[in-house]
Hints:
This protein is about 70% helix and about 0% strand.
Amino acid sequence: MFSSHVNRQENSVLDSGHSRLNELGYKQELKRDLSVLSNFAISFSIISVLTGVTTLYNNGIRFGGPVSIVYGWFIAASFTMSVGSSMAEICSSYPTSGGLYYWSAKLAGPNWAPFASWITGWFNIVGQWAGTTSVDFSLAQLIQVIILLSTGGKNGGGYEASKYLVIAFHGGILLLHASINSLPVSWLSFLGQVAAAWNIVGVFVLMILIPCVATETASAKSVFTHFNTDNGEGVDNNFHIFVVGFLMSQYTLTGFDASAHMTEETKNADTNGPKGIISSIGISIIVGFGYILGITFAVTNIPFLLDENNDAGGYAIAEIFYQAFKSRYGSGVGGIICLGVVAVSIFFCGMSCVTANSRMTYAFSRDGAMPFSSVWHKINKREVPINAVWLSVFISFCMVLPSLGSIVAFNSMVSIATIGLYIAYALPILFRVTLARKSFVPGPFNLGRYGVLVGWIAVIWVAIISVLFSLPVAFPVTIETLNYTPVAVGGLFILVVSSWVFKARYWFRGPITNIDA
């Protein structure tokens, strides 16, 4: 026992991430037990191409169809890698659970540090909560569709769950995620690796199985050249159509900041944290393209897939899976099983979202930025930020309640989860290429002389998508068709800045060290 204890202490001293954390002024409070594979697995599970593509595939085929989906993926992938590379470089220098908001404080300089930290932190944490909300609500909706198809489909007297039951599903899923995230980090490490394997294997199975089973498939020409302009929403400008359809790809490629939030639990985090960010994006790009191609080759009738009177109630991918098996075997059971594969992937995605949420909440409260910070910063005997876990799922449940009034509320969550998070990603990069251009000290992973160039590409890209995704998604614009992205993100900006101006600027000083320098 004594020898084991000594070895553990020696390993901690030798760990470069632990040493760097101490240099930054923080105690090692969380258990540092994650390997680079585990760190990668958490971000990869949050990106989860099965989750993002399945959830917003309707949007992709409605606006632009195969062209928006296929080429939009490459555009989003290229610029997302620029964002991820810049974040990885900063993560290598500052491997803390606070991640983005800590980076902003250090890079903005002493005069701007508190405000930079405040605005970045709140955009990050609210974006994460919104991300968990949208992921778990998407799973609740998919469960509803699975039940509908399992009981005969919409045209066969199938059971359609009420919106209240869907909310109940959502609450139950969050409870499961909170319970899992209350387990020791070694369990989360194992489940994260299972989730990563499930996503990779699931993608390859579905991308091969669905087009092979389908009795009718699209031609390669259709998959790579067909541009769907018949969206039924009054959007007739081709560029505008492409931009709206492009949201699917950009929404999918989010959440990789989780690798940064897990650095205080990752071995040699100054190198393995950046590796987690880069590898999760890169592998997601590859497997995501395979999934998109496989599914799109099974798309032969877009209006039918989007028709609310089909068996899946207009849920395009569910209808693709169901009809592929039904047309060949006379039964859609195989398609329902395939939807189950996707549902498990979304469940893992939500689980990892809560993991990242809780670590961000833990770090933000450690620095006193949240109401009742001393409560959310507590660590239990398993070295888990238990109160932060349950706070995260509670807020995510509350954020979905407005959907009882209108599904537009859910779209607002997607908006904040996409644009809000990317704004949080861009802020520390902006400070790195401007205020800290000459003073930034890179860590073991760095972009060398290309760091500033890649950083500017990332910042400009986030600025562009923030504008493009605020464009109308239907005409005429009404209370039901309004794109709530600028409302949701703008409202968050006003709340965060107002709280700073009227109160927080008098007491918040940015990240607070808890050991002597």
